[in-house]
């Protein structure tokens, strides 16, 4: 990569990290889109996105945990089955023609709900889920996370909020931790691809770290709950577009 390309990619990744970390996400889908835009080799894209996900989601999880915006029981219930399945998903190589448009359409449907009457959605009463639902759901989300090269939070957050399992800000904390463990497992499952990471990775890492610092501050302290849901709707719209049109 030439220096100009590296600078533009780093700036775009930093902006993506700020937006995604505001809702507890790592931004892998955005990093994949940015790398595709600049014609990065496919074998480089997934491990690079997962590595950047680790930085952003790890920092976001720590910030939300320190701020008391975390539900450890809900996180563990999803993570216990998701992590091994993310490892398996990271080892699978499938043609994207079928699953990517379907997943993108699902994200768009969720985005519509978050952008429409977010105040009403934010005020609903929370009800804890049953393990018989959470455990298989976590397994499915983990496998999908490893398969797509994302941390799975882009799928987890809508489920938690739509089924009223937690309120928006604590959902962001759970999603950030979920993304971190799944990204680590997915990267471990595809460990041979680590050798394909770009030499410019330190620059990308510094940019997304700065973006995560700004984004988590915005998500934890500045955005009211309805606006937090609208931000999540925007993130889902972008991620869905990336999956459908890439």
UniProtKB/TrEMBL annotation:
<feature type="transmembrane region" description="Helical">
    <location>
        <begin position="102"/>
        <end position="119"/>
    </location>
</feature>
<keyword id="KW-1133">Transmembrane helix</keyword>
<feature type="transmembrane region" description="Helical">
    <location>
        <begin position="139"/>
        <end position="162"/>
    </location>
</feature>
<protein>
    <recommendedName>
        <fullName>Probable membrane transporter protein</fullName>
    </recommendedName>
</protein>
<feature type="transmembrane region" description="Helical">
    <location>
        <begin position="200"/>
        <end position="220"/>
    </location>
</feature>
<feature type="transmembrane region" description="Helical">
    <location>
        <begin position="227"/>
        <end position="245"/>
    </location>
</feature>
<feature type="transmembrane region" description="Helical">
    <location>
        <begin position="49"/>
        <end position="65"/>
    </location>
</feature>
<feature type="transmembrane region" description="Helical">
    <location>
        <begin position="174"/>
        <end position="194"/>
    </location>
</feature>
<dbReference type="Pfam" id="PF01925">
    <property type="entry name" value="TauE"/>
</dbReference>
<keyword id="KW-1003">Cell membrane</keyword>
<feature type="transmembrane region" description="Helical">
    <location>
        <begin position="71"/>
        <end position="90"/>
    </location>
</feature>
<dbReference type="InterPro" id="IPR051598">
    <property type="entry name" value="TSUP/Inactive_protease-like"/>
</dbReference>
<keyword id="KW-0472">Membrane</keyword>
<feature type="transmembrane region" description="Helical">
    <location>
        <begin position="6"/>
        <end position="37"/>
    </location>
</feature>
<keyword id="KW-0812">Transmembrane</keyword>
<comment type="similarity">
    <text>Belongs to the 4-toluene sulfonate uptake permease (TSUP) (TC 2.A.102) family.</text>
</comment>
<dbReference type="InterPro" id="IPR002781">
    <property type="entry name" value="TM_pro_TauE-like"/>
</dbReference>
